[in-house]
Amino acid sequence: MAFIKNRLPSSRNRQRGVGMIEVLISITIASFALLGLAGLQVTSLKYQKTAQFRSLASQYSADMADRMRANVAGAKLGSYVTTDTYGALPASLPNCASAACTPDKVAQADLYNWRQALSQAVAGGWGEVSGTLTGGFVVTVYFNEPGDGSAAGANCRAAAFASGTDKSNIRCFSTTFLP
């Protein structure tokens, strides 16, 4: 009679499937890490765009301040002060290239060109000027900032918006200066 030895399975045979579970757990952890990195990238792009809009608003605000410093006579007359509502452009651009312009006409041309450039540079770009020569001028740049709308129009002048204007993502950047 043949005697069969009852052998215990070797350690190699007992570990069957455990390596596969470890690999699946590692892949799951790596997948969650990659999803987190993708979310971080999307958030980073959003904040980068916001920073770009705010930087452009700062540059255009300084641009208008420089235009007013170059035409102090127009600033003294109050020709740069605007009273229209968000999104409006002056009716026409004065032709200062062929004829000598008054400081008032130069101010109108500056406002027209500035608002045109703003509307092309940033989404919803528009601007206004308020104040006086003695008290200082305030240049406000409006732009449409992508976001959740939680701080809509935080620094915006309420009278600048026509009734029915959606202000949910409009932000304002204001600069005060003396020419």
Poorly predicted runs are none
Report how far the terminal alpha carbons are from each other.
Answer: 115 Å
- The total of beta strands comes to 3
H/E order of the elements? HHHHEEE
Q: Indicate the mean pLDDT.
A: 81
Radius of gyration: 31 Å
How are the strands of the largest sheet arranged? 1-2-3
Major sheet size, sense and barrel closure: 3 strands, antiparallel
Helix content: 40-55%
Shape summary: rod-shaped
SS class: alpha+beta
Binned strand content: 5-15%
Number of helices: 4
Organism: Collimonas rhizosphaerae
Transmembrane segments: 21-40
Pfam families: N_methyl (PF07963), Tt1218-like (PF22150)
Keywords: Membrane, Transmembrane, Transmembrane helix
The gist of it:
With 179 residues, the chain is α+β, with helices and mostly antiparallel strands. Helix content is 46%, strand content 13%.
Descriptive overview:
By secondary structure, the protein is α+β, with helices and mostly antiparallel strands. Helices cover 46% and strands 13% of the residues. It contains four helices and three strands, in the order ααααβββ. A three-stranded antiparallel β-sheet has the order 1-2-3, with helices on one face. α2 (18-70) runs antiparallel to α4. The mean pLDDT is 81.
Helix-strand blueprint:
Layout: H1 11-14, H2 18-70, H3 72-77, H4 103-121, E1 126-132, E2 136-144, E3 170-177
Antiparallel strand pairs: 1-2, 2-3
Helix pairs in contact: 2-4
Domain Type IV pilin Tt1218-like: 40-111
Protein name: Type IV pilus modification protein PilV
Organism: Collimonas rhizosphaerae
